[in-house]
Structure to design on (682 residues):
């Protein structure tokens, strides 16, 4: 079941064809998927205050209905640690096309994982797991399952990936928290079932996974074209 | 939906026969059923007359006995009227051979027929199909009997979206000695679809494996198929055509660009334990293996061979197909070694794949298979038999089958397919142990068991 707020977010995003990152994360957070602490603002003061409250660096992201692929527009700035950089980069981002506000987020780290969904014509919603980042298509190392998935489906997805050992821990490097990843995929798969009438595809990419938790660092919900 | 009227009709009307054109599809269908099948067959054409000295009825309504099945082979625009007449007559179901519906863009005409039938709860196969071949019962294929190669009656239920592929696959089944319980070309599947066929074949006592040739599903139909397949108690095998990536129009997300149509299909089939065959040859092997071992296995293979070379070839093929050749337990090797003929004790290699050498005799093979079956690391055994080896008797098939049945682990045999070895092959097959005619084929059978392993 979708809450009235989620229905409202989807309705408002219809004309753009996709849900802006802060709103997409609001939908995910409603389903208990972990997202980074953040503030959405056009004010340097608010952003600076947020930076001061964070234990580590922050990420700045332009929020614009005209920018779908942020890296292609240099619309993301990572590792921002000092107020001066924050101020200058905020000004730059606010000058990008269609950008009225900047999403300032605590920076999360870990293994980059792709969690995705596609509304398949023949099968309806399917979920996808793979190694994340911008090179997903290059490696094409992904596993696909019919949604909703069970925890044992998630186990088989990890096993099916060439990169499975990286997630499980490899050559002394810690893997990801499998319980957290499993919970995220299962919860996400139920969410996409509820979103079936609305979405075309969803990328949670990257989801940052470490031995403690899995946090959705970026999210994009592409909606079905209006009929 | 009771489909007995379609698969085991007592009486059938063939609507659309020609009194002037002997090769008309309806005439071919009428003749073969009238002459060779245990079904009372009536010819129908509005012009009436006689066909081969039998009466041609002006309409199905003029037939004065009940009719189970109507085979409709008239021009598409007449089909709605003919279906209405069949419903009025109380005919129980139909095969609509005629083309000229959705496949040529006339969706309205197809919908008219489908709605009419749905209101009357009147099942039909097609349109635009070959229909049903049900051995010893009925054959609606409009292919002359002397041209078509029919597999024997057997336990594979085969369903195809393509009539041409269906006939071709029947030739392959026949070549491998595989029989069908029924073969169905569902054409445009306006009424009877894959899910109905799972329902029918699951309750059909003569069917052990349900096989599909699938080109594609309609909107969300794949999900319905999977839901039904997931609860089916019999193994399901699919062969998919149309695997090459169709352009994913301006994929705007990473997910959409990696999750192409075929990958989605293939991974979902695996997720729900539907065994997807990669080729027609695999389909045949899968059907044969799963008709003997419906429960599948995890793919840990023990190989027994009489020649080191065959063992290596099989091990390579296993690796290629994702099957594991585990080391066998020490006590297994010891148990086998202590019971081998003295002549081969020193020369047999008891590491997996086992090489019993060309000097072994029947009892050595029985011993090896018996103890491999008891090894916890092994869940499927390949026995590569070379019948030209002098110590092998003609009874090896029957004897080894007995061991396999007693031990309860899947055994797959390779025996060269030659007439002089037929007694060995039958020794296996009559005891429902699958036999491949090549080493690769035996490995594919083992792969089928892994693909259909309950998830």
């Amino acid at each position: 079941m979708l809450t009235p707020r989620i229905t409202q977010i989807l309705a408002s995003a219809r004309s753009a064809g996709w849900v802006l990152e802060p709103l997409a994360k609001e939908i995910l957070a409603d389903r208990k998927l972990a997202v980074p602490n953040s503030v959405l603002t056009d004010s340097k003061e608010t952003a600076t205050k947020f930076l001061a409250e964070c234990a580590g660096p922050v990420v700045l992201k332009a929020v614009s209905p005209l920018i779908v692929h942020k890296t292609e527009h240099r619309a993301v700035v990572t590792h921002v640690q000092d107020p001066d950089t924050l101020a200058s980069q905020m000004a730059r981002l606010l000058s990008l096309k269609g950008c009225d506000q900047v999403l300032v987020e605590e920076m999360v780290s870990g293994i980059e994982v792709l969690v995705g969904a596609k509304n398949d014509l023949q099968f309806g919603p399917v979920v996808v797991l793979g190694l994340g980042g911008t090179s997903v298509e290059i490696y094409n190392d992904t596993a696909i399952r019919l949604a909703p998935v069970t925890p044992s489906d998630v186990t088989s997805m990890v096993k099916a990936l060439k990169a499975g050992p990286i997630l499980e821990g490899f050559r002394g490097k810690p893997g990801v928290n499998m319980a957290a990843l499993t919970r995220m995929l299962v919860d996400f798969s139920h969410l996409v079932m509820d979103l079936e009438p609305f979405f075309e595809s969803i990328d949670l990419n990257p989801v940052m996974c470490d031995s403690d938790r899995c946090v959705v660092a970026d999210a994009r919900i592409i909606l079905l074209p209006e009929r | 939906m009771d489909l007995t009227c379609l698969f085991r009709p007592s009486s059938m009307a063939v609507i659309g026969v020609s009194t002037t054109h002997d090769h008309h599809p309806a005439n071919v269908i009428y003749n073969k059923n009238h002459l060779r099948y245990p079904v009372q067959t009536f010819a129908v054409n509005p012009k009436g007359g006689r066909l081969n000295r039998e009466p041609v009825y002006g309409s199905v309504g003029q037939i004065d006995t009940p009719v189970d099945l109507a085979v409709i082979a008239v021009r598409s625009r007449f089909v709605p009227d003919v279906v209405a007449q069949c419903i009025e007559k109380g005919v129980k179901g139909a095969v609509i051979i005629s083309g000229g519906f959705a496949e040529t863009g006339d969706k309205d005409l197809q919908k008219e027929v489908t709605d009419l039938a749905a209101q009357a709860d009147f099942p039909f196969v097609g349109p635009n199909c070959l229909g049903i071949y049900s051995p010893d019962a009925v054959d609606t294929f409009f292919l002359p009997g002397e041209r078509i190669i029919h597999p024997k009656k057997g336990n594979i239920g085969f369903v195809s979206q393509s009539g041409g592929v269906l006939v071709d696959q029947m030739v392959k089944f026949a070549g491998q000695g595989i029989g069908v319980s029924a073969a169905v070309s569902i054409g445009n599947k306006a009424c009877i679809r894959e899910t109905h066929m799972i329902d029918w074949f699951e309750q059909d006592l003569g069917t052990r494996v349900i096989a599909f040739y699938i080109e594609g599903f309609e909107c969300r139909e794949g999900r319905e198929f999977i839901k039904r397949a997931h609860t089916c108690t019999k193994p399901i095998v699919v062969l998919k055509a149309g695997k090459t990536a169709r352009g994913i129009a301006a994929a705007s997300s990473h997910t959409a660009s990696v999750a192409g149509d075929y990958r989605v299909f293939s991974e979902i089939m695996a997720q729900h334990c539907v065994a997807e065959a990669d080729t027609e040859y695999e389909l045949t092997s899968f059907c044969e293996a799963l008709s003997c071992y419906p429960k599948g296995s995890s793919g840990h293979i023990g190989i027994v061979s009489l020649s080191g070379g065959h063992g290596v070839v099989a091990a390579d093929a296993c690796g290629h197909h994702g099957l594991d050749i585990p080391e066998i337990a020490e006590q297994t090797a010891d148990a086998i070694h202590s019971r081998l003929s003295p002549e081969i004790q020193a020369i047999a290699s008891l590491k997996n794949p086992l090489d019993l050498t060309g000097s072994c005799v029947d009892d050595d093979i029985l011993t090896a298979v018996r103890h491999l079956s008891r090894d916890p690391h092994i869940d499927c055994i390949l026995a590569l038999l070379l019948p030209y080896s002098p110590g092998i008797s003609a009874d090896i098939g029957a004897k080894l089958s007995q061991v396999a049945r007693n031990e309860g682990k899947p055994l797959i045999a390779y025996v060269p397919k030659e007439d002089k070895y037929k007694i060995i092959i039958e020794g296996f097959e009559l005891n429902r142990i699958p036999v491949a005619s090549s080493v690769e084929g035996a490995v594919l059978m083992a792969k089928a068991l892994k693909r259909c392993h309950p998830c």
